[in-house]
Amino acid sequence: MMEEGAALLHRFALLATAPMDSAGWDLLFKFVPFVLFFELPLYLIIILGVLRHGLIRLDEAPWRSGFAPSVSCIVTCYSEGEAVRQTIRSLAEQLYPGAIQILAVIDGAERNRETYLATRSMEPQVAGRRKRSLKVIPNWQRGGRVSALNTARNFVDGEIVMALDGDTSFDNDMVERAVRHFEDPSVGAVAGCLRVRNAKASVATRLQAIEYFLSIQASKTGLSAFNLVNNISGAFGVFRRTVLDLVDGWDAGTAEDLDITLRIKNYFGRYDRGFRIVFDPEALGFTDVPETFGAFFRQRLRWDGDLSYLYFRKHWRSFTPRLIGWKNFLLTIWTGLFFQIVMPLLIVLYSLYLFLVHPLPFVLSLLAVIYLFYLVMTVLLYVPFVILLSERPGQDLALMPWIVLFPLFAFVGRLNNALATLWELFGRGHEDTSMAPWWVTRKNRF
User: Fold this and answer.
1) How far apart are the C-alpha atoms of 317 and 444, rounded to whole Å?
2) 185-196: pLDDT as tens digits
3) Mapping DSSP to helix (H, G, I), strand (E, B) and coil, where does residue 381 land?
4) Would the pLDDT of 9 be above 70?
5) What is the pLDDT of residues 107-166, one digit of tens each?
6) Taking a C-beta distance cutoff of 8 angstroms, is the pair 300, 178 a contact?
7) Could you report the per-residue pLDDT of 45-83, keeping only the tens digit for each?
8) CA 229 – CA 183 distance, rounded (Å)
9) Is residue 441 part of a domain?
10) Which residues, including other chains, have CB under 8 Å from residue 229's CB and lie 6 or more apart?
11) Overall domain count for the chain
């Protein structure tokens, strides 16, 4: 084992000192392409975007322009129980000076009586607050998340519409932070920032807290600086009402968040720089994540399979600069198609190649080097991003010891991603969804 490790280190030394050497090229094609052609350029864009965001924030004056349009918050509820009270309370207690209408849709209210009654119990508290209202909308028979969202659209009064999950609570300046962007008429939607609410529950939730910070708060901040936001989260999306009307609300099926993001982006190419989706890292929501690794990987099996469904089956016509503009076209091909679909499959093939062709000690040594590389990269990204972006740096830095496990967590996630893609391509996995009951999916084009 030690001899194989020494030989591997010698080959890395050859790569650094004599890059044209055959051993160096051999190693280059075994490891570096994944990093060089897929990941490092993306990291560079994100870093530049975060720095740009930081510079803008340094010169940003406090926002008090008098712009306070009415806001409708659609809260989709299914089985949250008493936890939905925290969500409604956090919306009623917003510091926002304008009117906030809370529309709580209880999907399957007949079976979810606890959630329904918990929501109704909040009516007196909300009614006692100025410019705040709560309307509870029971869908007695379950119709799924999209059904709940579109049902609530019939009751919307606000100029700005928020789509929120019943298990997500918010900082009390969230509405003000999110809505201020709509003073710019080119902004069609705002992607809110999600953090993990139950981060201390288990090892799995701690690792997801690190992932959420890097993949949402940091990555989307960087992408937003160049109008390249890749997704408006289903648990925390904010829309100009006229834009929702333009795309006719949410479409039936699965992955409704990415679906509506792509449908909004279909107007980017027509309006060039006159239409934007903004991400605000300071418009904060806190959501509960799966507390076990089994539940986490089942969730991601659906999420990643839905991505393949949308790209390969439903929205393949959107892959054109004429609709989404050149920047978003290139980013979608790169980060969506290659980074999230092709690359996990390549990693599986690459791993199989290593174990089939090379002796086990060499493979383990190489994997150890790859692990160390990703560990260093994670630390180098995480610490500066916490300093630049985190509103709770103490809590985020307290997660640092768990970063030791993060490269392994991400690697297994990539394998799970590849499985989800294969399940969608060959088994139509999107039809096996928990987002809507079978009698709903059977009756639409989904």
Assistant:
1) 20
2) 999 999 999 999
3) helix
4) no
5) 988 888 999 999 999 999 999 899 999 999 998 888 888 889 999 999 999 999 999 998
6) no
7) 999 999 998 888 777 666 666 889 999 999 999 888 888
8) 19
9) no
10) 191, 220, 223, 261, 277, 278, 279
11) 1
Written as one letter, the residue type at 73 is C
Neighbour-count burial of 124, counting CB atoms closer than 10 A to its CB (0-12 exposed, 13-18 middle, 19+ buried): exposed
427/45 Cα distance (integer angstroms): 35
Domain interval for residue 166: 63-292
**pLDDT at 43 exceeding the cut of 80:** yes
Residue 273: predicted pLDDT: 58
The enclosing H or E element of 135 equals: strand 132-139
251 within domain boundaries: yes
User: Do the beta carbons of residue 65 and residue 183 sit within 8 Å?
Assistant: yes
CB-CB contact of 234 with 164 (8 Å): no
Query: Which of 183-197, 341-355, 412-426 has the largest mean confidence?
Result: 183-197
Residue 10 included in any domain = no
List pLDDT tens digits, range 375-398: 999 999 999 999 999 989 999 999
Give the C-alpha separation, 376 to 327, whole Å.
30
Give the number of residues written for the chain: 446
Residues forming beta bridges with residue 105, ordered by sequence position: 76, 137
The CATH number of the domain holding residue 82 is: 3.90.550.10
DSSP 181-250: GGGSTTEEEEEEEEEETTTTS-HHHHHHHHHHIIIIIIHHHHHHTTT------TTEEEEEHHHHHHTTSP
What is the 8-class DSSP label of residue 251?
P
What's the token pair of residue 395? 């809590």
Which amino acid type is present at position 215?
S
Tokens for 3, please give them: 């001899």
The yes-or-no verdict on residue 434 having pLDDT over 60 is yes
Q: Which tokens sit at 410?
A: 């991400």
Q: What's the chain's average pLDDT?
A: 85
Tell the residue number behind the tokens 């006159």, with chain if given.
Answer: 274
In-domain check, residue 394 = no
Under DSSP, is residue 102 helix (H, G, I), strand (E, B) or coil?
strand
Which three-class secondary structure state does DSSP give residue 57?
Answer: helix
Question: Model-level pTM?
Answer: 0.88
Query: Which region holds residue 43: left if phi is over 0, alpha if psi is between -120 and 50, else beta?
Result: alpha
Residue 42 has pLDDT above 70, yes or no: yes
Query: What contacts 24+ positions apart, CB below 8 Å, involve 293-296?
Result: 293/204, 295/204, 296/204, 296/208
Tell me which amino acid residue 211 is: E
